[in-house]
Amino acid sequence: MRFVQERIERGLLDARIQFVFSNRAQGQAQGSDGFFDLVSSYNLPLVTRSSAHYRRSRSSSGLTWAELRPEYDRLVLEDLEDFRPDICVLAGYMLIWGAQMCSSYPMLNLHPALPDGPIGTWQNVIWELIRQRATRTGAMIHLATEELDRGPVVSYCSAPITGPDFDQEWLALAELDLEEVRASQGEDLSLFQQIRRAEYRREPYLILETLRAVAEGRVQVKDGQALNASGLPLASTVPPGLCLDEEIDRAMAADGSA
């Protein structure tokens, strides 16, 4: 949020943030409290409804979270009924959106893998890339649907995970049992950390450049589809989505981050 808001304030993105929503409440966790302070510093409207508190309040009902979820989503929609955003961005939001939420707002979700890459958490993605001995990593923005990490792809970026910075790490792993390495070293594995950095440093630029593409009309989101400027589905490209590698490389170079 800081990355995008600062560029809005600098006139680098023709957009504004209408509101920020969190499924945590003030005082629930140190990390989210710090985020709320950041939102407040920008004078942005903050709306919160704790999903954890809601579940506890309904614990006596005997209903599962799946059964309670539609009511929780309905309450969230009521909380947000005064806002009319053109697009919403899910970032660090760990609840899978249900059908009612997906149909109410066009939601952009960040997933730390290429369009044809692994699904799941970023940790799972990296381990799968290592298992496959992949040559590239990346991230994508897709429309949020009820199907985890598999909504229509809007945009993506990629980065190599071979070459001088990686070859020694791949070589060191070649003769080892991956499951034993994962159990003994876990995320401290140097190759794991390097792959994460290669992808993670591009994430905020992917969000920014995707929002810029939407603001400029190069990407349209209509009726659950991601379309190009001509109104053709981006799903028809191979791989699907708008590749933003060039735009991200230029932006990172301008920031001295390349």
UniProtKB/TrEMBL annotation:
Pathway: Purine metabolism; IMP biosynthesis via de novo pathway; N(2)-formyl-N(1)-(5-phospho-D-ribosyl)glycinamide from N(1)-(5-phospho-D-ribosyl)glycinamide (10-formyl THF route): step 1/1. It comes from the Eukaryota. One of its GO terms (biological process) is 'de novo' IMP biosynthetic process. Coiled coil: none annotated. GO terms for molecular function: phosphoribosylglycinamide formyltransferase activity. Gene3D superfamilies: Formyl transferase, N-terminal domain. Its EC number is 2.1.2.2. InterPro entries: Formyl_transf_N (IPR002376), Formyl_transf_N_sf (IPR036477), GART_AS (IPR001555). Keywords: Purine biosynthesis, Transferase. Belongs to the GART family. PANTHER family: PHOSPHORIBOSYLGLYCINAMIDE FORMYLTRANSFERASE (PTHR43369). This is phosphoribosylglycinamide formyltransferase 1. It comes from Geodia barretti.
